[in-house]
Amino acid sequence: MDHESPLFHDLFGIPWLDFDLSTTLMTFISSVIVFIICTLAARNLKMKPTGFQNFMEWIVDFVKGIIGDTMDWKTGKVFLPLGLTLLVYIFISNILGVITMGVWGHELWWKSPTSDATLTLTLSALVIVLTHYYGVKVKGFKEYAKDYVRPVPFLLPFKIIEEFTNTLTLGLRLFGNIFAGEILLSLITKMAFAAAPFTFIAIIPMMAWQGFSLFIGAIQAFIFTMLTMVYMSHKVSSDH
């Protein structure tokens, strides 16, 4: 893309520390949208759900299914709020830049926050930290530490390396898919304007790609949530 994200340079007086304003803005917008969706879904709850409440309960059941496939429900039920939040938040964040892209001057403001590796790697790091926390909380530190030398102590360095690779792959997979989708959408949009007066011809592939990007956004939100529960089950379950 020719457009650059607006940066606040030299944050806190540190020359090499840049602060991406657009990512921060879009992260905040995503959070507000998720909050509004969950608030509306929780209002006027009925024993026989209809409409939006029915849709949200379907999402809750979907997340329950993810947890049930990775660990015992008695152990995993505590992670339902985490899984639900990740699924909804990541999906909303993925599709914001697909719906439209806001460019003012040469600066890209409106985009998917998950198209920034800083956000996705931060999310993945938080997930890995949570897995360690709950692993110690559920098993106790002594039993948790023994998992790193099972079945043989020789595996200890490999299991330590695995923690770093899990963080990188979890974050970079999400970033790569969303970033690539936005680049291609930007290229199709440029082709549409360059092909004037045949712009309407380029609208068809642009709409097709937007639909495909919505699908990819949903799949990536599912994969991130699923892998989160898989990593969590490895830490809290005795057999995995």
Automatic annotation (TrEMBL):
<dbReference type="Pfam" id="PF00119">
    <property type="entry name" value="ATP-synt_A"/>
</dbReference>
<feature type="transmembrane region" description="Helical">
    <location>
        <begin position="117"/>
        <end position="136"/>
    </location>
</feature>
<keyword id="KW-0375">Hydrogen ion transport</keyword>
<dbReference type="InterPro" id="IPR035908">
    <property type="entry name" value="F0_ATP_A_sf"/>
</dbReference>
<dbReference type="GO" id="GO:0045259">
    <property type="term" value="C:proton-transporting ATP synthase complex"/>
</dbReference>
<feature type="transmembrane region" description="Helical">
    <location>
        <begin position="183"/>
        <end position="206"/>
    </location>
</feature>
<dbReference type="GO" id="GO:0005886">
    <property type="term" value="C:plasma membrane"/>
</dbReference>
<dbReference type="InterPro" id="IPR045082">
    <property type="entry name" value="ATP_syn_F0_a_bact/chloroplast"/>
</dbReference>
<keyword id="KW-1003">Cell membrane</keyword>
<protein>
    <recommendedName>
        <fullName>ATP synthase subunit a</fullName>
    </recommendedName>
</protein>
<comment type="similarity">
    <text>Belongs to the ATPase A chain family.</text>
</comment>
<keyword id="KW-0406">Ion transport</keyword>
<feature type="transmembrane region" description="Helical">
    <location>
        <begin position="212"/>
        <end position="232"/>
    </location>
</feature>
<feature type="transmembrane region" description="Helical">
    <location>
        <begin position="21"/>
        <end position="42"/>
    </location>
</feature>
<dbReference type="GO" id="GO:0042777">
    <property type="term" value="P:proton motive force-driven plasma membrane ATP synthesis"/>
</dbReference>
<keyword id="KW-0813">Transport</keyword>
<comment type="function">
    <text>Key component of the proton channel; it plays a direct role in the translocation of protons across the membrane.</text>
</comment>
<dbReference type="InterPro" id="IPR000568">
    <property type="entry name" value="ATP_synth_F0_asu"/>
</dbReference>
<keyword id="KW-1133">Transmembrane helix</keyword>
<dbReference type="InterPro" id="IPR023011">
    <property type="entry name" value="ATP_synth_F0_asu_AS"/>
</dbReference>
<keyword id="KW-0812">Transmembrane</keyword>
<keyword id="KW-0066">ATP synthesis</keyword>
<keyword id="KW-0472">Membrane</keyword>
<feature type="transmembrane region" description="Helical">
    <location>
        <begin position="78"/>
        <end position="105"/>
    </location>
</feature>
<keyword id="KW-0138">CF(0)</keyword>
<dbReference type="GO" id="GO:0046933">
    <property type="term" value="F:proton-transporting ATP synthase activity, rotational mechanism"/>
</dbReference>
